[in-house]
Design a protein that fits this description.
Layout lengths: L3 H20 L36 E5 L15 E2 L1 E5 L12 E7 L6 H4 L1 E2 L5 E4 L2 E6 L4 E7 L3 E8 L2 E9 L5 E6 L4 E6 L12 E7 L5 E6 L2 E3 L3 E4 L2 E9 L3 E10 L3 H8 L7 H16 L2 E4 L3 H13 L5 E2 L2 E2 L5 E4 L6 E3 L3 E2 L1 E2 H4 L3 H8 L1 H18 L5 E2 L12 H12 L7 H12 L13 H7 L11 H21 L4 H10 L7 E2 L4 E2 L26 H4 L7 H8 L2 H13 L14 H9 L24 H15 L15 H11 L1 E2 L7 E4 L6 E5 L5 E5 L9 E7 L2 E2 L4 E3 H4 L3 E8 L22
Parallel strand pairs: 32-36
Antiparallel strand pairs: 1-3, 2-5, 3-4, 4-10, 6-7, 7-8, 8-9, 9-18, 10-17, 11-12, 11-16, 12-13, 13-18, 14-15, 14-17, 19-31, 20-24, 21-22, 22-23, 25-26, 27-28, 29-30, 30-35, 31-32, 33-34, 33-36
Length: 761
């Protein structure tokens, strides 16, 4: 007789064992650096490249499928590699700076990017944050890379060949190479950049091999040359060897924005370690950082998505500093062109990252964010302004004055435990809030109008004026919060509190949406709330109406109360994804990404509306937040090459997922609060820098059990729709009772709603 019960129990045990084996991997094993690489200018599924790097490393490395100067350096659909590029690119739209490429090959001497290119397959590609390997089919070479923060080691496995080569392409726009055969070395520099650099900008590099060169050549553009040295528009070097089958050639490479000598110092990061040791150390470094958050009780794909997003959240802003011969922190200033002491970070746009990425650093990496704040103080002292988009220096892109949020949130959350020059940073905020900068994206464009009228007018030649007004008002709120914390004069405090209410000047009582307003006080007409751009930035009125992070209750009051506010939120999801692209003259990729997402006017692929699902908490309908946050996590994120629903944007879209998966989100940086959502996993453990832990338990969580039926905080029933940062960082245990049906009684009382300025006593 067959014992079906015994067989069933054995199968369950086997499944549990297989589950344990799968989930017993280390965090870095779940990361897929190819997430987001299946992108193109007309449709972004992330617009990322595989960053082979250390967390926040000064230099990244990436395989290069695109041509020289193409911001889409690596696209998943490509079938040829042109080289392996040291890159500092934050996004394809910002493009790169200080980049150069390395490519091994065999056979006749080929050095132009098309001639040296090789077919490859993802099937013969291994991609980890700390390691990359690929087989170059046309050359019968396996190339491997493993990095440190400022250096990297290459391992080339060659076939038997009389003519094996390595090309170092310093690219165009001004470069230099010198081959030093006795030292098995190539040195040089590249000046290639996309803006935001002083006139003396150079990235100096050094590359050292473990094998003597048989022959050497240089090149000038497409012209092959004899000789060991060349300085020109487009310089490059070729070193050649005779190799045996399976022969391994090691190359060490490092660079510096300061000097050749400093590049040599940076090369010492590799020490005497071999390739596998560097690789092992890199793996350990990533596991250390990724392991600060442990998730349990989810699907393998959810694990992969979570840790891939966490990886992207730990890349930017980039460390733009180095260590001198005495071990002291120094940096080349992308603002003044000088070499100066102290920290510097770059490659982040605050318009994107003030929302979730920087609050995430304040929660999990306050020590690092203290260094970032010191770097911002240095940026102000060296350039006279805080960068709103730095890459590496000031860039003229996006709107707002959101450095105020980044500075204020860091100090308000961690200023009592981390000492830095907040006085200089406060001075920088006041300067930026009251002056138009040297670029329209620095300081405040339209500041005189804003300070006089309370808004930037639609008809005075300043584009995206409504977006600027709304962001300036929020930024003024963060200055108000910081001014209170620093005990500034009451007159100054009250000024910024008053300005933070300027959002009301653009609220149209007829449509109950935000609308551009002319200098004479009349709303612009005709008004199409589905029109992208124009008065808004990469969005329309349905997206920007919710950009009142600091006073959602005030916005709800303007709309007619909480029920009317919630109904307006509902409409975002129920409206068809129609649009008016006439301002741009064509359908920009952000529009297309909203259209295809099938979530109405909710455009999660871009930043302005990403916080909006959390706003139901302010109207006493938290179950709708829970529904739409889980829908967004489930539908808009995957661990595949097309895994994002728009630009990933330097960790912001990833940090949204990381926070949301933990069950809360920083709707208003500059306050102490996180707004509740719905946890994704059955258990999440956050290990804080102070040694405390936040334990988030939801044992009956599942695909269907997405609603919060009840919550306890440190063993006590908790009805509020928000969590306190200061309470969490003391260590906390949150126990969620999850359900498949909404609890429409929990979190419905006004005393349970998150902070709004209008409710401030």
């Amino acid at each position: 007789m067959i014992n079906y019960k015994k067989i069933k129990n054995q199968m369950i045990s086997l499944l549990l064992l297989l589950t344990w084996i799968t989930y017993a991997q280390e965090p870095v094993d779940y990361v897929n650096p190819l997430v987001g690489t299946d992108s193109k200018p007309s449709m972004s599924n992330g617009n990322t490249y595989p960053a082979i790097a250390m967390p926040w490393g000064m230099n990244f490395w990436t395989p290069q499928t695109g041509k020289m100067g193409d911001g889409w350096a690596y696209t998943y659909s490509a079938d040829k590699l042109r080289g392996f590029k040291q890159t500092h690119q934050p996004s394809p739209w910002m493009n790169d700076y200080g980049q150069f490429a390395i490519m091994p090959l065999t056979g006749k001497t080929r050095f132009t990017e098309d001639d040296r290119a090789s077919w490859y397959s993802h099937k013969s590609e291994i991609v980890k944050p700390y390691y990359y390997s690929v087989y170059l089919a046309d050359h019968d070479i396996t190339t491997e890379i493993t990095p440190t923060e400022r250096a990297a080691m290459f391992r080339f496995t060659f076939p038997e060949n009389e003519n094996s080569h390595v090309v170092l392409d310093a690219l165009d726009k001004g470069s230099y190479v010198k081959i030093i055969p006795k030292e098995r070395k190539i040195i040089g520099y590249t000046t290639k950049n996309s803006g935001g650099v002083p006139d003396n900008f150079k990235n100096y590099f050094v590359m050292v091999f473990d094998k003597d060169f048989e022959t050497t050549k240089t090149f000038n553009g497409e012209q092959l040359l004899e000789g060991l040295e060349i300085e020109t528009d487009h310089a490059g070097a070729i070193v050649s060897f005779k190799t045996k089958k399976g022969e391994v050639v090691i190359a060490k490479v490092a660079s510096s924005f300061i000097s050749y000598d400093q590049a040599e110092l940076n090369l010492k990061e590799l020490g005497s370690d071999d390739f596998d040791t560097i690789k092992k150390n890199g793996r350990a470094a990533w596991n250390k950082e990724l392991g600060r958050i442990k998730v349990e009780g989810g699907s393998v794909d959810q694990f992969r998505t979570f840790y891939s997003c966490l990886y992207r959240s730990l890349l930017f802003p980039r460390k733009f500093f180095e260590y001198d011969a005495n071990g002291k922190v120094v940096h080349y200033s992308p603002y003044s062109g000088e070499v100066l002491p102290g920290y510097m970070f770059t490659d982040t746009g605050f318009w994107d990252t003030f929302r979730a990425l920087f609050p995430f650093l304040n929660l999990m990496y306050p020590e690092l964010n203290t260094q970032i704040q010191e770097g911002l103080a240095n940026a102000y002292k060296e350039g006279g302004w805080l960068p709103e988009w730095g890459s590496p220096g000031l860039r003229n892109v996006m709107v707002g004055n959101n450095s105020a949020s980044v500075v204020a949130d860091a100090y308000l959350k961690n200023g009592d435990t981390n000492s830095y020059d907040i006085a200089t940073l406060y001075e920088a905020l006041i300067h930026g809030a009251n002056n138009a900068g040297p670029l329209t994206a620095v300081g405040r464009a339209g500041v005189d109008y804003y300070n006089k009228l309370g808004y930037v007018p639609y008809d005075v030649g300043i584009n995206e004026n409504a977006a600027r007004t709304l962001e300036y008002a929020y930024d003024d709120f963060t200055i108000y919060q910081l001014a209170k914390a620093l005990n500034k004069p009451k007159k100054e405090i009250n000024l910024y509190k008053k300005r933070s209410l300027n959002y009301k000047n653009l609220f149209d009582p007829e449509t109950k949406l935000m609308r551009g307003k002319n200098e004479n006080g009349e709303f612009m007409a005709p008004f199409n709330p589905f029109k992208w751009g124009d008065a808004f930035t990469e969005g329309n009125s349905w997206h920007y109406t919710w950009s009142v992070f600091h006073d959602i209750q005030g916005l709800a009051n303007l709309m007619g109360g909480n029920d009317a506010f919630a109904a307006k939120l509902d409409k975002v999801f129920s409206l068809p994804p129609v649009f008016d692209e006439s301002y741009y003259g064509s359908v920009i990729h952000e529009i297309r990404e909203m259209q295809v997402a099938n979530m109405g006017q909710y455009a999660h692929g871009n930043q302005p509306i990403q916080h909006m699902p959390y706003l139901y908490n302010f109207a006493g309908q938290p179950w709708k937040t829970q529904y739409w946050v889980r829908e967004t996590m489930d539908r808009m994120y995957t661990p595949a090459p097309d895994g994002y629903c728009g630009d990933e944007d330097n960790g912001q879209t990833s940090a949204w997922y990381v926070f949301s998966a933990m069950g809360f989100y920083p709707v208003c940086p500059g306050t102490d609060q996180y707004v509740l959502g719905t946890p994704l996993f059955q258990k999440t453990t956050l290990i804080l820098e102070n040694g405390k832990e936040i334990n988030i338990n939801a044992p009956n969580n599942s695909t269907t059990n997405k609603y919060v039926n009840a919550l306890t905080l440190n063993g006590k029933a908790y009805s509020k729709n928000w969590l306190s940062h200061q309470e969490l960082v003391q260590g906390a245990v949150l126990n969620f009772d999850m359900s498949d049906t909404p609890n429409k009684n929990r979190g419905t009382k006004t005393e349970d709603f998150p902070f709004s300025l209008s409710n401030e006593k």
